[in-house]
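I am still getting used to backbone structure tokens and would like to learn alongside you. To get us started, please write out a protein record for me. Start from the sequence, derive the backbone structure tokens from it, and show both lines together. Once you have written the record down, we can walk along the chain together:
***
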Amino acid sequence: MKDYDILLIDPPMKHFNEGAFKYGALSLASENVDSKVFNPGLLSIGTYLLSKNFSVKLVHILHEKDIKAQLKKIIQWGTPKMIGISCSYMHTYLPSLYIAEECRKMFNDAIIVSGGAHIGNIPAVALNLCSSIDIIVEGEGELAEEKLIHCIKYDKNEINQIGNIYFRKSMIEKFPALDLKKFKNVIRDEFISYNEVQSYIENDIFMSKHKEPLIDINELPYIKYDLYENHLSYPAYVEESRGCYGKCRYCVASIQNTYRYKDSQRFLDELDYAIKIYGENNLFPFTSATFGVNAENTIKICKGIIERHPNLKWTSEFRLDLPWEKYIDIMYKSGCRGFAIGLESASPRILEMMNKTTNPDLYLNKAKALISKLSEFPDAIIHLNLMVYYGEDSISTIDNLKFITSHFNSISSVHYSPLILFAGTNAWHDFMDMHEKYGTTIVKNETYDVLCSYPINPSWLFTCDDVGYFSKVIEKLFIEKDGYMKYHETRLARNEQGSISSSSKTAFIKSMI
């Protein structure tokens, strides 16, 4: 056994069976479903660090029950200098903390780092809760983690120059050259009741005063999929863009506001690389919350796919306010069959409150036109994301119901979820105003306090359970449609030939019901 530089851990999801977790997209985390997807951020970090000549190992722990067995297996690999644990979702938060504690027992001298969209937004909470984590990275991790492992391996004085990091004052014991004057204390908000938020200064927790620059995603090395064991059993994600340009008040992506996309030539070359590994017969999900921002670049991508891989099938997510009219036909012609649309609401009032659009009438007309256009394609799968937001009332609920039912024959799938308040979002900061205006309250219990994420009772009229049951019924209306399962197939484990067993499909449907 040899020492190596960094161990990256993709943790399992924790399964909750109570409260808001029974509803909407939250219920997709089912212990009965063998869900196998790459963690794009972790995989990118591992690939990037390999390109910088650091030694990297990566483990994906699929289920909570497998944590101890997988960690025992890791011991055989040697001793890492640094351990990076991903925590992109609230479902992986508690497993991430537990894994950190177990890793501390196994590798006492290693520097344990965690990052990802969830833990990166609640660093003070996580550091207070888990003494085994040394550092939390906020935002994208490639540059910060490169500097951290270089600092650990070669020169610990460099700790003072690293951006995007959070740590306790006691970190001086591991990095004696740490100069706290170059950092600042963390201020955090906490719900002290179901309707009141207070701010605190964390005197013992510090953060960088500066941000790491954004990496040029066109210059990143091609993803090394085989960092994952049995990588051919995973859907072959290919990254088209990162982040989102939108400023939706509920979304964690708006906190970082780091949107950029890959040049068409770079994307097509990377797609060629992925197809050589996975074969053209696989369905390729393109990693992008906002595919198609630049119409000219998007048209070049679609034309390139038609020329190079005329039989390819792929899926992507995109926003309604994009110039999709310019490329939707060629998008379909190039093989896009899954169209995931972030509608979020059909209520003009709610759309403005979300900051989804400043022109709700135009936005909803574009939504209707897009669905009508996609309906012309015989095998297009149309998926809608909707959310129950602050201040919902009978009119906004009817607006949503009218929209869904009027397009029922065209839509294949709907995710209809209660709003979850995530720390640091504008919706989080809006709470007190919404409480006064609409009677909004949070659902507060020990689980949500630990997760630092709260479902809401959106108004005096509706509770979280009300909207949850309602949204579940709406989702079930689509389960028997042919396109429903095809859209969700990218969440399920495949064999090495790229196919999914009928038992996995059945288990998934049952978990949704």
